[in-house]
Amino acid sequence: MRSRSENYKMGGRIQHIQLGGPMLIKEIVIGSVFAFAAGGAFKMWHWDMQKRAKNFYEQLDRGEATVVAQEY
């Protein structure tokens, strides 16, 4: 029969998981996905603002919109 101290010594032989370094390809892919998502969101916002400006100037040319505040 083993003593209690011998049982504790056995715990030192367990293989511990080694943490690896950063995965370069994975980080590049994740960064690219975030960059394309942010770029796409900005581009959609930019197109919307262009459409609003174009619509405003078309209404201004037709006389449907004015830039002068009404007096009460």
From TrEMBL:
Transmembrane residue ranges: 28-45
One cellular-component annotation, GO: mitochondrial inner membrane
Record's subcellular location: Mitochondrion inner membrane
Signal sequence range: none
Keywords tagged on the record: Membrane, Mitochondrion, Mitochondrion inner membrane, Transmembrane, Transmembrane helix
InterPro entries per record: COX5C
Main location: mitochondrion
Function noted in UniProt: This protein is one of the nuclear-coded polypeptide chains of cytochrome c oxidase, the terminal oxidase in mitochondrial electron transport.
Membership in a protein family: Belongs to the cytochrome c oxidase subunit 5C family.
Official protein name in the record: Cytochrome c oxidase subunit 5C
Native organism: Anisodus acutangulus
